[in-house]
Amino acid sequence: MLALMLVVAGGLPEPVAAPTRTVSVMPSVTVTLPSPTVTWLSPGARPQEVRWRSVGPVGDTVRITLERHGCSGEIAVLAGPTANDGVEAVTVPTLATGGTFAVRVRSTSTSAFGCSSDFPVVIGPFSCSDPVAGMAWQAGRRQRVAWISSDPVGARIDIGLARPGETGRFRALAQGVANDGEEFVNVPADVPPGAYKLVFDLTGPRAAATYFSPIFSITPGR
Fold first, then answer.
1. pLDDT digits over 104-128, tens only?
2. What is the dihedral of CA 179, 185, 190, 193, to 10 degrees?
3. For residue 178, what is the domain's CATH number?
4. Is the pTM value of this prediction over 0.70?
5. How far apart are CA 29 and CA 221, in angstroms?
6. Domain identity same for 79 and 153
7. In terms of residue numbers, what domain contains 43?
8. Nearest-5° angle of CA 165, CA 167, CA 173?
């Protein structure tokens, strides 16, 4: 720290602190969730998490909105005013069509705001995100299955293989697993190569339902 020397009568010079400059911080908001790897369902029975970081005097409360892609227009209010504490559980509204959307978090007392990256919103109670259309699985290998569901977490799911155009399971892969959005399954080594889809038979608090993945392929094992 720079100091000035003040000479005191009858004594030694004493240091005097230089004036402190105050640096103002511009208020800003950065939205970290949802991200491009997150998919929301509409309408959403499960709350979805919005996360953000605030820098500077943003204010005590914020307003959270669902926006068209690139934050190009407000579609619905998700929360607000709500505490500027960096996290909020929101309910996905009923949308006419799915697509790519964004979330805006805006201060209610200043001009500070932030927008999330674009992310997908899917219409319907269930969506399989892994495998995707055209993906190739290898027989005899362990594979990841991922999905999102508006049914409660307490529901159970049976997962199996089926040929395109069929509704029944050709081969069971998992029985009674938790509806938590992810399961690793072992693909039998003797499954014939060709085109397949996954069959998800769901049972739980709501009525039983059957859903399907996109069409993908299974190649011979090595």
1. 999 999 999 999 999 999 888 888 9
2. 80
3. 2.60.40.10
4. no
5. 50
6. no
7. 28-123
8. 110
